[in-house]
Amino acid sequence: MNNGFINSFSAEWIKKRRSFASWLVLIGGFFVPLISILIFLAYPKQLLGIHASGHFWILHFQKSWQLMAFMLLPMGIVLAVSLITQLEFKNNSWKQLHTAPVSLSSIYFSKLAVLITMLLQLFLLFNLGIYLSAVIPSLLNSNIPFPKYAIDPIYFLKENANYFIICLPMLALQFLISLQFRNFLVPVGAGLAFTIGGLIALSWKYIYMIPSSYTALYFLQTKDNTVPAHNLQSWSLFYFLLFVLLGYWLYISKKEKG
Amino acid sequence: MQTKTPLWQNSFKSHIQTRFLCPESIAIKNKLMYCVETRHLSHSFSSHPNVLKDINLQVPTGSIYGFLGPNGAGKTTSLRLLLGLIKKQQGELLLFDKPFLKQRETVLKKIGSMIESPSLYGHLTAVENLQLMQKLYQCPETRIAEVLNIVGLSATGSKKASQFSLGMKQRLSLAVALLHQPTLLILDEPTNGLDPNGIIEIRDLLKKLNEEEGISIIISSHLLSEIEKLVTHVGIISKGKMVFQGTLENLVSKQQHDSKLIIETSDTDGSIEILSRLQLTVTRENGKIILPIPSKEMIASLNRQLINAGVDVYEMSPVKKDLETIFMELINQ
User: Fold this and answer.
1) Mean pLDDT of all residues in A116-143
2) How far is C-alpha B289 from the geometric centre of its chain's CA atoms?
3) Alpha-carbon distance B247 to nearest alpha carbon in chain A (angstroms)
4) Chain B CB contacts of A98 below 8 Å
5) Does the complex come out with an ipTM higher than 0.95?
């Protein structure tokens, strides 16, 4: 792998230390599981119902994804990506970065790689949170049984991979927009408008054209166990590639670099 | 009152003593006349046309080049062009005798820069700011402690850069610029916002870097007085045009050339005759005699001759233009 990219990635990784975005990943990963724990402790019947279903982990996983897929994950991506990109604008550091002996490609792709790695971190924390949200209530309330059921690793890996892939176009689009505007409110506003717009248009027949709706769309597909009309993963990869290349072109074509 | 030498100045001294000029920089010094050269550089912004007009910058290798001009004259735009932060529109731009765009990364490895306000990550400490730059420049990790020592910020610990005073931020930016041991420093108004002590400290530091490590320095400022004690060469820019470029001696000799001696006596005509006999170019202005300023000894001799000729001398005053006046005249012409 290109040395410039690795050096640039290491530098970007240091930059995110103690940033709001890295806190957001931590909070975002455990927010829904924490809410679930509180609900299960207040209303144990809900968790007992999942225990009685016979597909404990699958049902618990799907229920945990409900809130995440519709609102929190798209909003989290919008905020985290904008915050990471904003670090350069806020600290007036584009000029310092662009006078370092690193190619523009390394800078662009290392920033993108850091964002993708952070998304991966969020997924890992969220899955850990899902597990803990099933275990902790049983430890605190003796009426709730401990979830001793076997976990199907293939199912979890497949579902996580699918959710991960369909998040990528939104991440790339948000990265593209955030690189263009100094004012933090512009990319955040645009990202939220895309997210809400995607939710409003969920029943539209061409909804597969709007990548910000993919997490909600995928959740509905898996919940209802319906045969998908469109392959969201393929669309996601297509959009991801499109946004990454378009963003790269816009970035290197900028007349002023700090 | 005895003043205490700042700790960082002592550590800087020891740092200098242990450091050697790298062979590359010696080679550059021997071969290259100019480390930075622009030819017919012009630039326009859509909102501000003709920000730079035909700029021919020549920064001799090993010099401290003061790039002077009032606010909005085009200094920062020139420096941003040199560093590739703005796309070049017209003219040629050579750094270390190489076209910048063709050798961007090789050239940038040799340059340390600080453009306008400090560019630091406020949520990180001084060490973390330097760590990430160390990754980008791929220089030894030991340099982090060294440059912190040089700028006197070794003891900042876990304090975040956003909590630093402006002076500390400027110093940390300078540490970033020095981290990879550059052969050229480009500093845009590095003493902005510093108190007089801070200005003197930075000035001393730059002088030492230049004299003892052979680093070429371009330093921009809108105040001549701020850098006249530091620079060896001066470039003055006004309204996007270079109005002067040369050594500081050139500028000083311009000052002497423009200085005059005013003499008022009881007999102006007689005095003019005496002075003309000495082959001095004299003019008359409001009943006073004006001539280019001669040496101190010559002034005394003139005085003696006038008195010996029976002329009463009422006034003999040398009028010297200071550098600031010449600078003001140059930028206002």
Assistant:
1) 95
2) 37
3) 28
4) 83-85
5) no
